[in-house]
Specification:
The protein is mostly helical and about 20 residues long. It contains one helix and no strands. The N and C termini lie far apart (about 20 Å). This is Soluble starch synthase II-1.
């Protein structure tokens, strides 16, 4: 998995407040 993908996923998680 690419770092950009991880950052994108992390951004989505934070935006969704699912973490």
């Amino acid at each position: 998995i690419s770092t950009s993908e991880r950052r994108k996923i992390s951004s989505i998680i934070e935006d969704s407040s699912i973490y």
